[in-house]
Specification:
mainly alpha, elongated, 17 helices
């Protein structure tokens, strides 16, 4: 009888508070790369056309200065120039324009148009956050969570994430979900709170909430009743959104007959799709089902594998993202 290794059920998709003691060595490289990949999020708003922005910005209008900075940052109507973008962003930020304060913090975090400086980034995030800007509040919370420009402080991260989330900032909702899902120092694991924030994020269209919702229902505890069928429901929603981890986890459910009827061909299909989407652990499960691991007997016949691959090839989201 085959002995299956447990699936790796979720990895955070947003920046959360992490300590070295709570990260498995197998995943530490992946999580570190994710932490360094995104230094901040900027506002998407633009305040009109370029000519209008130039004229008003030169007269000292903070909103126009912010809009002009965005034009230079994007290369929209002008050559992309982060140095000039940072200059105009600073002018707007100095006048107390909260959007510009947050985005100038992002410039410092990424080293765009200015020398990279996480301490200055956090200072600008704080100004935006205190002005009530939800993205500034999220950015400040993340600075505390990651210990970038500020001492690592889980409770401060929690406080600022909550302020942002109450203003329907979905990144903060996701961050809160993972914070409660994992637990950090003085913040105990709380599946009820995690589920609530993930559900709020999902309601705002954040597909990243689906896979951890499946994890919560699959394992249960901490105030949430275990419900494999509900877990499979969320894993399927994540898989259909082309989330590689959701696809792998749905494959595990079909393989193990948890929340769904056992179907090894369907399991292979989802492992195959997840592998094509870059999930390395799913490849291991494929190899087990193909009998490449000498400790396991072959699970699927060549005909079954061919059918599973046919189903995987027909998966529309994967076909749409193929080169």
């Amino acid at each position: 009888m085959t002995s299956w290794a447990g699936c790796a059920k979720y990895f955070p998709r947003v920046q959360i508070f992490m300590t070295k003691q709570t990260i498995l060595p197998l995943l530490s490289g992946l999580l570190l790369a994710m932490t360094l990949a995104g230094a901040g999020a900027v506002h998407a708003q633009d305040n009109g056309g370029l000519a209008t922005a130039v004229a008003a910005a030169q007269k000292g209008d903070a909103a126009a200065q912010y809009a002009l900075a965005k034009h230079y940052a994007k290369g929209d109507g002008v050559p992309q120039d982060y140095a000039r973008a940072a200059e105009w962003m600073r002018r707007a930020a100095d006048q107390g324009f909260a959007y510009a304060q947050n985005d100038l913090g992002v410039f410092y975090a990424k080293g765009q148009g200015v020398r990279q400086n996480f301490t200055k980034a956090a200072r600008w995030y704080r100004q935006a956050a205190k002005a009530g800007d939800p993205l500034g509040q999220y950015s400040l919370g993340r600075s505390y969570a990651e210990g970038r420009g500020l001492p690592t402080n889980a409770l401060e991260a929690l406080k600022w994430y909550q302020k942002a989330a109450r203003q329907k900032q979905s990144d903060a909702m996701l961050a809160l979900g993972f914070l409660y899902l994992d637990g950090r120092e003085s913040i105990p694991v709380n599946f009820t709170q995690a589920r609530a924030w993930f559900e709020k994020a999902e309601a705002l269209g954040r597909a990243e909430a689906l896979n951890p919702l499946g994890y919560i229902y699959e394992h249960g505890g901490n105030g949430v009743e275990r419900d494999p069928a509900q877990a499979a429901f969320y894993y399927r929603k994540a898989a259909e959104k082309n989330d590689a981890q959701g696809q792998m986890n749905l494959g595990c459910m079909y393989r193990d007959g948890s929340g769904v009827k056992t179907d090894l061909v369907e399991a292979y299909k989802w492992f195959d799709i997840a592998t094509q989407n870059g999930e390395p652990i799913a490849r291991h499960y494929l190899e087990e089902m193909e009998g490449k691991n000498p400790l396991n007997r072959p699970i699927l016949s060549p005909a079954q594998i061919a059918e599973a691959k046919r189903r995987a090839a027909a998966f529309l989201p994967l076909r749409q993202t193929s080169p």
